[in-house]
Design brief:
Elements: E1 2-8, E2 14-18, H1 23-32, E3 39-43, H2 49-60, E4 64-68, E5 71-75, H3 86-89, H4 99-106, E6 108-112, H5 125-133, E7 136-141, E8 144-149, E9 160-162, H6 168-178, E10 184-188, H7 194-205, E11 209-211, E12 217-221, E13 230-232, H8 237-249, E14 253-257, H9 265-273, E15 277-282, E16 285-289, E17 298-299, H10 311-318, E18 324-328, H11 339-344, E19 348-352, E20 355-359, E21 368-370, H12 374-386, E22 390-394, H13 396-402, H14 406-412, E23 416-422, H15 428-434
Parallel strand pairs: 2-14, 3-13, 9-10, 17-18, 21-22
Antiparallel strand pairs: 1-22, 1-23, 3-5, 4-5, 6-8, 7-8, 10-12, 11-12, 14-16, 15-16, 18-20, 19-20
Helix pairs in contact: 1-2, 1-7, 4-6, 5-6, 6-7, 8-10, 8-12, 10-12, 12-13
């Protein structure tokens, strides 16, 4: 049996939704806790499939985890393994983050090349070159990255590192590795994403010396060891952005908190360009006030530009706009696979390379569709909420990786959406015709 989502569109939404902790921050902070030989506590941890997988990976390294509600206690006092298991790492690209802290702690690390969403090549060469600059000997054999520090002290050493591309993963890996290195490290052309800042703040709470996170230049002065910390993860800006689009695409007023509005600057600006108003009701509460949807061009960029993780959701919104939109994906080469699924619902989209031209249509129609990656799954839910009739969405394992209780949250806003179980061999078309009972 597998679960599918039944979405009956055209229901008006209203009310307030609670935004969970940031998935991408939680994953890297769990890796960051490996730097500390004392127990640490993370708060506002979302209950997600990716977080569970990351938990399995750090447990396999000998770390003790204790989860209660949204609080996660991590005790990395003893790291008994320097190699993360392939069967876990292959399911989660963020698992590669452990190479930096494990190498910094033990002087040796072995991590299989990562997996996750099939949205791009995601080479690890920036991670590897940066670790080499910090004094590590790094080899890749048979799909496993092996890194070790020569010499008796087994400590990395500070270095000046320029990243050819402001990679979030490489920035985070090298920042973690440098926290315990001898001397000062400078990361130039660093990623500026809020999750990078959250990691730096967590490391500082443990006693690390880091300056400049959130800018293009980060400076880290290594310290001999870190100490325990109690830290709250920032709200998920992509989940908040998804609910902003939910209000706009269903022409519904929705309020959401907690949020950090500065993390959503690009998405809010694009929503306003497309006709919606976004009001700040309090420093951590946003409310979307919809209007007829206008076309607008979008080009994804590293933060603070428009996020690639919001491209699919805004494409769904664009399908119902007045006019034509040009959407250019510059970050990942395979991140337009949701186009074919939106076309099944009546969207008018043409693709050439990394560019999609969206001609707005008056109405989408419910159809059987399949999620191709995490953010595409959210886009299909949004399209289903606005479509005429019933949409059945397969591939919910993608959705479960990154959205905590999305179905329940939408139901509380008034959406007609339910998760149902169907035989694994049954197609989405058969599910839409048979109307299986709720799981």
């Amino acid at each position: 049996m597998e679960s599918v989502l039944h979405v009956r569109g055209r229901s008006a939404l209203s009310g307030q939704v609670t935004i969970s902790g940031a998935k991408n921050a939680a994953l890297v902070l769990m890796a960051g806790a490996l730097l500390c030989p004392e127990p640490c506590r993370l708060r506002n941890v979302p209950n997600l499939l990716d977080v569970k997988r990351m938990g399995q990976i750090v447990r396999a390294l000998g770390v003790k985890l204790d989860a209660h509600g949204d609080v996660l206690d991590i005790d990395a006092t003893h790291i008994g393994q320097s190699q993360a298991p392939y069967e876990l790492v292959s399911q989660l690209r963020a698992s590669f983050f452990v190479i930096g802290p494990v190498l910094a702690r033990l002087g040796i690390a072995r991590v299989p090349l990562p997996g996750g969403c099939a949205i791009g090549a995601r080479p690890v060469d920036l991670h590897v070159r940066g670790l080499q600059a910090l004094g590590a000997d790094v080899q890749i054999h048979h799909g496993v990255v092996r890194a070790c520090v020569r010499g008796g002290r087994k400590r990395l050493r500070g270095a000046k590192i320029y990243l050819d591309y402001p990679s979030v993963g490489a920035t985070e890996t090298l920042m973690m590795a440098a926290t315990l290195a001898d001397g000062e490290t400078t990361l130039d052309n660093a990623a500026q994403e809020p999750e990078v800042v959250d990691l730096a703040n967590f490391c500082r709470a443990m006693g690390a010396k880091i300056q400049g996170a959130g800018t293009k230049t980060i400076r880290i002065v290594g310290v001999p060891r870190l100490h325990q910390a109690d830290y709250r993860i920032v709200p998920d800006r992509i989940e908040a952005g998804t609910f902003l689009v939910a209000g706009a695409i269903t022409q519904s007023e929705i309020s959401m908190s907690p949020v950090i509005p500065d993390h959503l600057t690009a998405a809010i600006a694009k929503l306003r360009a497309m006709g919606s108003q976004v009001a700040m009701d309090s420093p951590n509460t946003l409310r979307v006030i919809p209007s007829p949807i206008e076309a607008a061009d979008i080009e994804t960029q590293p933060y603070p530009g428009f996020p690639t993780d919001m491209q699919a959701q805004f494409m769904a919104l664009s399908t119902l706009s007045n006019g034509n939109s040009v959407i250019t994906e510059t970050v990942f080469e395979n991140r337009l696979r949701h186009v074919a699924e939106l076309q099944r619902m009546g969207a008018d989209i043409r693709v050439k390379g990394n560019i999609a031209v969206v001609r707005g249509v008056p109405m989408l129609s419910g159809a059987p569709v399949v999620a191709t990656d995490l953010r595409a799954s959210a886009a299909l839910v949004l399209a289903g909420l606005a479509a005429d009739g019933k949409t059945v969405i397969q591939g919910l394992h993608h959705l479960d990786r990154g959205y905590e209780n999305l179905t329940e949250k939408l139901c509380r806003l008034g959406a007609d959406i339910e998760r149902v179980m169907v035989p694994s061999s049954e197609t989405a078309t058969e599910a839409i015709e048979s109307g299986q009972p709720s799981a």
